[in-house]
From TrEMBL:
Gene3D superfamilies per the UniProt record, alphabetical: CBS-domain (3.10.580.10)
Keyword hit for tRNA-binding: no
PROSITE patterns according to UniProt: CBS (PS51371)
Location of the CBS domain: 8-64, 72-128
Keywords (A to Z) from UniProt: CBS domain
CDD domains: CBS_pair_HRP1_like
Organism: Alteribacter keqinensis
Cross-referenced SMART domains: CBS
Alphabetical list of PANTHER family matching this protein: CBS DOMAIN-CONTAINING PROTEIN, CBS DOMAIN-CONTAINING PROTEIN CBSX3, MITOCHONDRIAL
Protein name: CBS domain-containing protein
Length: 142
């Protein structure tokens, strides 16, 4: 059985908590991603998503110079790199998570997306179930 270590993206670009929203949005655009971990060194503090920027930043009339730590999501569900892929897919489905930060000890070592799990040939029905559960939720289309 494969572990998350085998399918995770290990080279993860991060933002610092005092980076501004413009910097985070620019990184997302350049990397073609919708979420970036927020770290101090290699310690994970939170995640900032394009949705965080829109709902907690723009919609609340915060300037582009607003610090990422003011809009980031702090209470994250994480996994360690040794977790079995199918267990992670099931957890992501149950918790409605699209991106799962991989943390060993206090150190961010990677990230896994639903797409990573769904396209990985060794995953079983859990990855497909997770992708369907999250992707087909009506509220996700608004």
């Amino acid at each position: 059985m494969k572990s998350l270590r085998d399918v995770m993206t290990a080279e993860v670009e991060c933002c610092k908590p005092d980076d501004n929203l413009y910097t985070a949005a620019t990184k997302m655009k350049n990397l073609d991603v919708g979420a970036i971990p927020v770290c101090e060194g290699d310690h994970l503090l939170g995640m900032v998503t394009d949705r965080d920027i829109v709902l907690r930043g723009v919609a609340e009339k915060r300037p582009n110079s607003c610090e990422v730590k003011e809009v980031m999501s702090e209470h994250l569900i994480t996994a360690d790199s040794g977790m079995i892929v199918d267990q992670a897919a099931q957890m992501m489905a149950e918790k409605q998570i699209r991106r799962l930060p991989i943390v060993d000890g206090q150190k961010l070592v990677g990230i896994v997306s639903l797409g990573d799990l769904a396209t990985h040939t060794s995953t079983t029905d859990e990855a497909s179930f997770a992708l369907n559960e999250i992707s087909e939720r009506p509220e996700a289309h608004h």
